[in-house]
Specification:
homodimer, Aminopeptidase, Alpha-Beta Plaits, nine-stranded mixed beta sheet, 23% strand, globular
Chain lengths: 420, 420
């Protein structure tokens, strides 16, 4: 770290508010849907957004690489730096802030450091497919060295089945090497994001410093019954697989509170009856069930209760229920020192207006936390709404968040410079 | 009716068993799926089946017309006749007997009458779309004069949205006139079918004479909640539309027995959560719910209870549930005289091996019952299985059913001849 950082260490950096909002408007126009966006990973809109963002990184003086899995990485010229990241793609017909906001904060921080004549020792990267269209955090896990070629060979788009390899070819990046995290280069990883819940808003707060990211279990639960005619099959002899899963949903909802933590969540996001005909008793039904907590012990308890409920159901019949773990992530604790730096920045810019809190959503930061210090910063979500086009954050909160993020980055760089 | 009928009235007609089974095998090969068939209305397989059946009707000496809605009608030269009918198309990946068996019985009866040197005063018709791919009993209702051009204009294939008009054009019948029931021509309507339930089998019986066909209500029930992130939205503030419908399903299942008849049935055949993503709380959910009974008063009670449950749910929240009646059919009583003729035939050929029973399934016969005397004859379904490719009936029962059907037809023709 050079002397320029130290010289300015007592004054908060100023981000360019108008430019931040203009960037957000421009990026939100790519794949716009109502007041949100529809940008599936490697869709035409997503590819366009990546090109747009790469150009902004270049303008900010960073050297840009789009690697073999679509990670779009802007590197500064410093030998040692912080890394800021998030994602560009969206959930289906979802909000414009989930992902992009963190990238624009990184970009704004680089510009602010430069404008303040500080060394912008900050890389900024858009990780491909955080939203899981093709897999689980493919981009950031690839950068962390956790994605094999075999996993890439097998990956398919979740709605239309397009192979990841074909999508990468269409995006023009097939065959390129995949960039790998050089741990020695990085002081740590910082990710800003909308909260996607209602805690900050309901407590009248404007900034959240994330203490830990929840772990998650995704389970596919299937019931096998007997498909039959809905008019001629007496109620008494039916083996209705759809009804069996409805009952399980209700049983879970009644049983989980007794073993859950205070912030545990559980959701049945998808339900399908087969064959799905009005006049046919479902012979098979399938649901996607998910639960999350920051405490591994709570995750274990919830998992145990789920399997006990399924065993109980199978003992009484009439259908046979099975569960298959589709994916699991472990809780990730955020770095204490990085939390403190962001907390100090928040207290300086929004005194009393911030809190430490867990993240109920998964983020790329949880993968980095296994390799380098990591931290996250949240801004409020209006009405707690996310994964929906109506998702929003007030302009004042968007700007304050960028300011706190840039200031947190500055404080971390100053501290690193001092500790040399 | 001419003297030839009377002359042979004391001996049961003999159907050609080998030819019946060969016909069944040939027809089942068109659109074969495992041991069943997949023949959506106006699919290539269905059109091929229609052509195959038209050819069999011609061979049996009938004058064949395929009309402007795809009804395939074989007419005898008698001035007054019975009408036998059923359907050729199938439910998705369903059984080979549901529909076709009744048509092959009609064909076998014509041949048997002719072979016995009796006047074959029997028309045989395959009604289009009994299985409701494009609408509700479109073919038989059209023949009964109950389908307007506007209904045809609006009809769409239920899975791929193809307009009925386009499907009729592809089938080569667009623009042809639609045949209309001449009530004065017909002594009555007779339809043989597999039971599609387990009653005959469980009681060790081989023939069912249908007393009435159930009426049915098809209701589309939707819940509106708030779509949100499955990780960040606390359980306490969720408005989960999927969970709301699961709860309603269970509430129906608990409440209906108290107001149902002994043979009432109710089914949720389809369930969809929107957007259907594992990490998104469903903001909307929709289910197709159906209930049936032979008693109009019971249908009214069930309908009342359903709406009371929905009102109750809406009072307690957190989601808003609405119900829309998609279709309704009224119970149809079968003609007593025709029932008696078929019962006498059954008693002659399977003494003590038959019963009178309601039909839990809807059939084209319910539409004819509004215009001319109608009757139905059932043969057992193995394991009560239907609307599934595993649907089956023993060869002995298939043959006996054809024999009883032909003999019932003969007795009705004899009786009509005598009453002249």
């Amino acid at each position: 770290m050079n002397a320029r950082v130290s010289a300015a260490s007592s004054e908060p950096t100023e981000i360019d508010r108008e430019r931040l909002l203009a960037d957000l408007a421009a990026l939100s126009a790519i794949g716009a849907y109502k007041s949100g966006v529809h940008r599936p990973t490697f869709s035409a809109e997503d590819i366009k957004a990546r090109a747009w963002f790469a150009e902004r990184l270049r303008e900010a003086g960073l050297a840009v690489e789009i690697d073999g899995i679509g990670n779009t990485i802007g590197r500064c010229s410093s030998g040692r730096a912080l890394l800021a990241g998030s994602h560009l793609e969206s959930q289906p017909h979802a909000g414009r802030l989930d992902g992009p906001l963190g990238l624009l904060y990184g970009l704004a921080a680089v510009r602010a450091l430069r404008a303040a004549d500080l060394e912008p020792a900050l890389d900024v990267a858009a990780w491909a497919d955080e939203e899981g269209w093709f897999g689980q955090f493919l981009g950031s896990r690839s950068f962390c060295g956790e994605v094999t070629e075999a996993e890439m060979d097998a990956a398919r788009q979740r709605t239309d089945g397009t192979p990841l390899r074909a999508a990468l070819a269409a995006a023009g990046v097939a065959g390129r090497p995949r960039a790998i995290l050089p741990p020695a280069r990085y002081l740590g990883y910082a990710e800003a994001h909308i909260e996607q819940g209602d805690r900050l808003e309901s407590e009248g707060l404007r900034i959240g410093i994330v203490s830990a990211i929840v772990g998650m279990r995704n389970v596919i639960i299937a019931a096998e019954g007997v498909q039959n005619h809905a008019g001629t099959t007496r109620m008494a002899i039916r083996k209705d697989a759809g009804l069996a899963l409805c009952k399980l949903c209700i049983a879970i909802d009644q049983a989980f509170p007794a073993v859950a933590g205070s912030r545990s969540v559980w959701t049945t996001g998808r339900m399908r009856f087969e064959p799905g005909e009005p006049s046919v008793i479902p012979g098979r039904a399938e649901m996607h069930f998910q639960f999350r907590d920051t405490d591994p012990a709570v995750l274990e308890r919830l998992s145990g209760r789920l399997h006990a409920l399924i065993e109980e159901t199978n003992r009484t019949g009439p259908c046979r229920i099975t569960a298959r773990l589709r994916s699991a992530t472990e809780p990730a604790v955020m770095d204490a020192g990085m939390q403190d730096a962001f907390a100090a920045a928040a207290e300086a810019l929004a005194p009393g207006g911030w809190t430490r809190m867990p993240s109920g959503a998964g983020h790329d930061a949880q993968n980095f936390a296994r390799h380098i210090p990591a931290v996250m910063l949240f801004v409020p979500s209006i009405g707690g709404i996310s994964h929906h086009w109506a998702e929003d954050t007030s302009e004042a909160d968007i700007v304050l968040g960028a300011q706190v993020f840039a200031e947190g980055i500055r404080r971390l760089l100053v501290a690193a410079d001092r500790s040399r």
